[in-house]
Write a structure and sequence with these properties.
11 helices; eight-stranded mixed sheet; 43% helix; transferase; single chain; three-stranded antiparallel sheet; alpha/beta; Spore Coat Polysaccharide Biosynthesis Protein SpsA, Chain A
Length: 298
């Protein structure tokens, strides 16, 4: 069995090198790692030149393709190298435990039908097709559950993908650029008959590590105002994904919910509310117009 991986990076050479070191410090590391560089300058490329080996390979996109476009390239390159399983990583979010990969492959060993397994990962959620909402597991649902089926495994959660699902045609849509590209991939894999799993016990250990046990759903959290531009992509892309999957009830529900949440965002201040409303409005508008790709940044 060949285990390869890729890490997506954008203008963060220092964080990238630290993450590479932590990935190869795993008790069960990948045999090789592609660096997929979205950077707008050549600093990362210059930094990587002295680190390239048979184990570390480099591919510069040449423009900012976003996490979605970079993920497509990473999946393609790893499968072309003969990988059976592919680690889908990010430059500032290494595996949180030194034995994360080892435990995830132990999980794979216990799955009855590996040929129909799309992926395994650390943290996963269920997805409500009628509302277009994610549901996280409670602590009690995670405890003692080594094998737990999920609908989606988010990015930066030690996502390890089976080559068979990639060869079957499941790929994230490159034109999403940023936001929910993992959900897009996961739903395509599910549509093809593949299943996704997490190690529930390991997920619960992660919550305790970051003091996030006693999880409670339904809390509206305030974003950092400098990150509100992301609302545009999460709004637009979720609506595109719901439409593609013909989840029309969820599509209508989400548009209404997005409008209501934009209105309630004013409780965090006028400037916060105005920015949230602007990005939400443009996200809905570009969905209606069928516009994809990179349109907004900070």
């Amino acid at each position: 069995m060949k285990f390869n991986g890729f890490i997506i990076t954008y203008n963060r050479p220092k964080e990238l090198l630290e993450t590479i070191q932590k990935v190869f410090a795993q008790s069960y590391p990948p045999q090789s790692l592609w660096i997929i560089d979205n950077s707008s300058d050549d600093l990362t490329e210059k930094e990587m030149n002295s680190f390239l080996t048979e184990k570390i390979k480099y591919h510069r996109i040449g423009y900012n393709a976003g996490p979605a476009g970079a993920a497509v390239k990473g999946l393609e390159l790893c499968v072309a190298d003969g990988a059976d399983w592919v680690y889908w990583g990010d430059d500032d979010d290494p595996p949180p435990f030194t034995d994360t990969f080892e435990k995830l492959f132990s999980l794979i060993d216990e799955i009855d039908d590996v040929s129909k397994t799309a992926q395994v990962g650390l943290v996963g959620t269920l997805f409500n097709n009628m509302k277009g909402e994610f549901r996280r597991f409670t602590d009690s649902e995670l405890k003692g559950k080594k094998i737990l089926e999920v609908d989606s495994i988010a990015g930066n959660q030690s996502k390890i993908v089976n080559k068979m699902v990639i060869q079957s045609g499941a790929m994230p849509c490159e034109n999403l650029f940023f936001g929910f590209e993992e959900l897009d991939f996961d739903l395509k894999a599910k549509e093809l008959g593949f299943k996704s799993y997490i190690n529930g016990t390991l997920n619960f250990e992660l919550r305790k590590k970051y003091k996030k046990d006693n999880f409670k759903a339904g809390i509206i959290r305030k974003r950092k105002i400098e990150n509100l531009w992301r609302q545009y992509y999460s709004t637009r892309n979720l609506l595109f994904i719901l439409q593609r999957n013909r989840f029309y009830s969820a599509l209508n529900y989400q548009i209404l919910k997005m409008i209501i949440r934009a209105i309630f965002s004013f409780k965090f201040g006028l400037n916060y509310g105005m920015k949230t409303t602007k990005f939400t409005f443009y996200g809905i508008l570009d969905f209606i117009r069928g516009v994809k790709g990179q349109l907004l940044q900070k």
